[in-house]
Structure to design on (183 residues):
């Protein structure tokens, strides 16, 4: 049985480009602390290649970035930026990781600006402005965070704490637009 968090291959390619945009926007946060570590940048480049159809799904899954290793010994903001890249690279495996990429990117922005309580919301606004109607439709088809155990949107890491709040905010925006009948 296929998880509702998977999305079709065409939808995964669509949301992969958007997820790469989200991760790349905060990449400098990681690179400021670890300029010699090219893993997040390489993960984003591979994700873009997947989105353009230059990489196949199996190859991208095989080569996806292990974000945890790049997060050791860096600040919480840099760790969130590296995790955004890792989540983006995992979109080929399961489309729901796009929301993880966006959530971690917003968290990185927030952690860089502790004196600006609206930093995560401002980052979500930026992400929203880059969503095409097709990306919104694909992301809207994903189950609500924490309600389906068959993937990253289950009750695990993405559903917890501030990260979970940020992803729920993004999913709420997607549903609000749908209720208004907008693409």
């Amino acid at each position: 049985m296929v998880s509702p968090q998977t999305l079709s291959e065409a939808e995964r390619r669509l949301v992969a480009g958007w997820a790469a945009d989200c991760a790349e926007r905060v990449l400098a946060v990681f690179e400021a602390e670890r300029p010699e570590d090219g893993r997040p940048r390489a993960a984003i480049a591979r994700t873009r290649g997947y989105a353009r159809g230059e990489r196949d799904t199996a190859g991208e899954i095989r080569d996806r970035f292990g974000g945890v290793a790049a997060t050791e010994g860096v600040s919480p903001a840099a760790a969130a930026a590296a995790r955004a890249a890792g989540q983006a690279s995992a979109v080929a495996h399961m489309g729901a990781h796009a929301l993880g990429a966006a959530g971690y990117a917003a968290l990185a922005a927030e952690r860089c600006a502790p004196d600006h309580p609206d930093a995560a919301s401002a980052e979500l606004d930026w992400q929203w402005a880059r969503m095409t109607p097709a990306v919104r439709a694909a992301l809207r088809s994903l189950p609500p965070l924490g309600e389906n155990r068959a993937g990253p949107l289950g009750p695990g890491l993405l559903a917890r704490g501030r990260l979970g709040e940020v992803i729920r905010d993004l999913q709420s925006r997607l549903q609000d637009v749908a209720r208004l009948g907008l693409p």
